[in-house]
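# step 3/5: fold
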Amino acid sequence: MTGQTTERATASRAAEHQSDWRRTYARRLAFTDLLVLVWIVFGTQITWLGLGAATPTVDLNHADAALSYTVISIVIVGTWMLSLSVFGTRGYRVAGVGSTEYKYIFDGSLRLFGLVAIAAFLFKIDLARGYILLAFPLGTVVLIFSRWMWRQWLGVQRQQGKYSSRVLLVGSVESAAHIAQELARQPQAGYHVVGACVPAGGAIDHLPDTGVPIAGTVDSVMHALASSHADTVVITSADELSPQRVRQLSWDLEPGHYSLVVAPSLSGIGGPRIHTRPLTGLPLVHVETPRYEGGKLFAKRAFDLLTAGLLTVLLSPVLIAIAIAIAASSPGGVLFHQQRVGLNGKPFTMLKFRSMLPGAEGMLQALHQQHDAGNDVLFKMQRDPRVTPIGRVLRRYSLDELPQLFNVLQGQMSLVGPRPPLATEVSLYEQHVHRRFLVKPGVTGLWQVSGRSDLSWEDTVRLDLFYVENWSILSDLTILWRTGRAVVSRAGAY
């Protein structure tokens, strides 16, 4: 009885820990949402209508009734706040990562806009159209921006283990270690692993390649929850975990005190490709196979042509200035032509601004023993002696990559995609890495915005293949946005 009492007390503390940070964060979001809506709605009212605006009328049984715009603004702000709550925009499950939070904000705002339009039509409310047409789009944009700002703050907190679920992993050593590593790569998701229950139990102290301590066996999950003060159980996989045992474990977890998450043995899959379908109590997870054809491919090519063409025109003064600087600073051509491997493994000539001395490729073999960056496949040096002074500046800000816009216009590359490799690098690839050739290589990509030369080869492959499996126009836009930040930070650029 004492053990059960202790576990119930621990469950209560776990529930309090969960609800405390969730309530605190939700309250902060609600407060800033209110500030944004009051600022936008009343600001639009004053800017568009002025302080002495005529009041709209409402036709009630053919008798006109005056209604103050201030009252209308108050009603809009109140119903907008209610809509954001109903659509779950402040839920902890959508906080911090993914586009779901932004999607809910957009959906809730759009539906409210439609509701206001219908109400104005039905009750014949003579509203100023500009007031409505300006307030809703502007309010939605500022709401999304304020949530993005909160995400930056939340990401910093979660890097320190705060505002996160305390996770206990349950499964085999291999699967638990894999999930622990994946969660550690994305602390902004809000899963802080504090322990693991594996079949081996006390035979090992920690999960391999992680700092996660072993808290017990798969038979002592409830005791491990009490000792680790975890509030979330993540089931990975193990032969010892039969469907009956997993179901019993879900029953043992006190409702409202713990969360149960099942992590399938499948990684590198984007959210839009995953669909769940409950079938008489059996949760089936449908994973759509990636497609590289049809309208989606046409849209990507159209996006590449329009954006690359526009960037080429806008950046033409910069391109000319760089070309003049390279020609004046050292002998040799302005452009560097290099054979790279592209779509379907076919070679193409990639263009870059020359950032090295003439004959630099002939010096590569002699420098291989001195490289101090990159990884097992990619050769990089933080102070490469072949790089010219002007080339060092170009590389720091990725300006040497700008001529690849012409590769995009020719259809050899895309704005976003995996890094185009050398043929010598391809010869070192394992079989699965060749999947990166299913799409065109990119001027930028997940590799470039996630650390570039500072990444290990395993992380480089993981990011490239994740993009190949899950690419979309929205993900391309996100990566292009992150590219600007990566260029400014200069992380991993040598």
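# step 4/5: annotate
Residues 394 and 400 are 5 Å apart (CA to CA).
# step 5/5: archive (pending)
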